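User: quick one - fold this with flavin-adenine dinucleotide bound?
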Amino acid sequence: MTSEHYRPDADILIVGGGLSGTMLAVQLLRLPGQRRIVIVESRGELGRGEAYSATELGHTLNGNAARMSVDPDDADDLTRWLGEFIAAGGWPESDEQHVPVAELFPPRGIFGLYVQQRLVEAQAVGAQHGSTVEHVRSEVIDLQTDPTGIRVTLADSTQLSGRFGVLATGMFAAARTPQRDADGESDTLNAAAVDPWDVAAMRRLDPQGRVLIIGSGLTMVDTVVSLEQAGHRGAIDVFSRHGLLPHVRRQPPSWPDFLAADHTIRSTRQLLRALREQCEQAIAQGIDWQAPLDTVRVHIPRLWNQATDLQRRQFVRHVRPWWESHHHRSPPPSAQLLDRLLQEGRLNVHAASLLAVQDREAGQVRINLRYRGEDQPTEVSGAALINSTGIQYDWRRVDRALPKQLLARGLIQPGPLALGIAADAGGAVLDAEGHVSDRLFAMGPPLRGLWWESTAVTDVALQAKALAARLVASYNP
Ligand SMILES: Cc1cc2nc3c(=O)[nH]c(=O)nc-3n(C[C@H](O)[C@H](O)[C@H](O)COP(=O)(O)OP(=O)(O)OC[C@H]3O[C@@H](n4cnc5c(N)ncnc54)[C@H](O)[C@@H]3O)c2cc1C
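Assistant: Sure. Structure tokens for the protein plus flavin-adenine dinucleotide:
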């Protein structure tokens, strides 16, 4: 069939219907012109993904409503929607936070409803110019490209084609990816560990049993919230290399954007020096150190993108734990719970590296750790082990069909530092030989290596808008 007569199943075929894929569809539907959008998503609902499928009210966004609009042109979008949702009786527990709507930290499940409503509204707009979006519920297990577009194979062997393909596959949980130890043996961590999102499994734990958690970031915070909700009242020991907990998110006042005024800052060392000076100035004026820190966020993609691999490696090795704990902050209700458990002595946080998971007996798990500063390993046992180490960004280590096939076919290559996949600044993926695809694009977490911060709501919202404009321009040159 010639490309002239070829009619693909979709103009734009999006793989993954979490926040990224859904927001891309929203932006495409809002733009003039007729187009068929197909989203292949294995979950039953669009717009949720892992993050916004949360069912616990205690699993909240880590920023308040004023910071989490999905509309890059309207920062009040979520606040307005949330106000109406609360007024309609949707979230009676919001009273407990005692703050105005803009300062509320909404449960992530409710945020998912907001995303879904924006999709429904965009569908109505799109329908006026004949655009449609269809959710095909399946997993894409393979993808090929040709000069006319892309073709995907679904888990049931069905094939679908599109003029353009977009990888909006999100993050792959480390807990679901096999890890190898130094001898190439499969690590037993994942086999022995409870999934941090498996709330039902937490309800089955011995309420007084000692729980061991590996990882001390925001996933751990959610895990502790889930344990508490599940009725667990025993000891919780958290182990991570540096033993750093996320700081609590406060509402600092605005602070001058010092990086906008100084484009000479490029290296990690220069950035840290400048940031430290700014924080000291803030503290000397009685202002929260979070104020200067929050101005840095918007510059991170540019600084990361400009950095050499050596500088990026230095950042990852020396700064990342501090960046994670200072920047990726806890919502206040969760932080209050952690504070209480720390004060009660039920929660203990240790700087220690996991060496091995020993054999598991019924109701007992034993692990070997090396505490920071010690030479000898220590054995620790508990009733359960929870792996909250988070995300596997290296697609070569992801045990899922599509990443494997894309790599095997040479359609993608690892991104900088093997974080996600390589792409140009507009999200067009680079194949194994470095050619920029004019058919296959990516957005959100797969672009971690390109931008470092490519995951948060605001990152995804901005990328969705830019990519929609690029795709439409490519389609209607
Ligand atoms: C637990 C958690 C909490 C978070 N909290 C916050 C927060 O408070 N604030 C914030 O700004 N950000 C937060 N984030 C970041 C959040 O991931 C992003 O905001 C957003 O979810 C990224 O959307 P996504 O669609 O790219 O990825 P995902 O939400 O992971 O969605 C990807 C989707 O793709 C589907 N998929 C993958 N591969 C295939 C395939 N081969 N075939 C078909 N479907 C496929 C998956 O089923 C999934 O639904 C959180 C993330 C997590 C995991």
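One thing worth noting: Confidence is low (pLDDT under 50) at residues 175-186.
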